[in-house]
């Protein structure tokens, strides 16, 4: 059991296995310290067989690592998003999450980038709010007229959702205006 007055921050590859991480501080950190575990600028993040207990208004895990794997973990967070990922390849397998919001995924869409893959399998997700996905363009003016970015692909199987809605997708207005999506594109 690791009890944090601050948080765990790194920009190196991070592997956590078999740990319980808890917040013991009374003050909510600001800025880069907005999560119990913050792996920002890290090439990879692997968290296996861990339990997170967060009672302040903070995310349990926040990372922009290109490869994020969360497996066999329990995330208990009653007041804020459980996990906030900005990665390109995200795997959440056999996890239990209970919190205000389950999983916030932000993807910066760039021209000519490969598809982004999200696997959400064999998990139980309970929340008073939806799973949240946000897509936004990387400097839309700079990339105007260039080939569109790859797709965000979700593989969701064997997962139980108990939430107000399963997915909410917010896309930046300039991104939508450029793509001019049709209802059948959502499929």
Task: Please characterize this protein's 3D structure.
The chain is mainly β and 187 residues long. It has one helix at residues 173-179, and strands at residues 2-4, 8-10, 14-17, 20-23, 35-39, 44-48, 51-54, 59-63, 67-71, 74-85, 89-93, 96-109, 116-121, 124-127, 131-137, 152-157, 160-162, 167-171. Strands 1, 2, 4, 5, 7, 8, 10, 12, 14, 15, 17 and 18 form a 12-stranded parallel β-sheet that branches. Strands 3-6-9-11-13-16 form a 6-stranded parallel β-sheet, with no helix packed on it. The longest helix is centred in the C-terminal third of the chain and has 7 residues, at 173-179. The protein starts with a strand and ends in an 8-residue tail after the last helix. The model has no long low-confidence stretch (mean pLDDT 78).
Spans of at least 5 consecutive residues whose pLDDT stays below 50 are none
Query: Helical stretch count?
Result: 1
Structural class: mainly beta
Radius of gyration: 17 Å
Order of secondary-structure elements: EEEEEEEEEEEEEEEEEEH
Set down the secondary structure blueprint.
Layout: E1 2-4, E2 8-10, E3 14-17, E4 20-23, E5 35-39, E6 44-48, E7 51-54, E8 59-63, E9 67-71, E10 74-85, E11 89-93, E12 96-109, E13 116-121, E14 124-127, E15 131-137, E16 152-157, E17 160-162, E18 167-171, H1 173-179
Parallel strand pairs: 1-4, 2-5, 3-6, 4-7, 5-8, 6-9, 7-10, 8-10, 9-11, 10-12, 11-13, 12-14, 12-15, 13-16, 14-17, 15-18
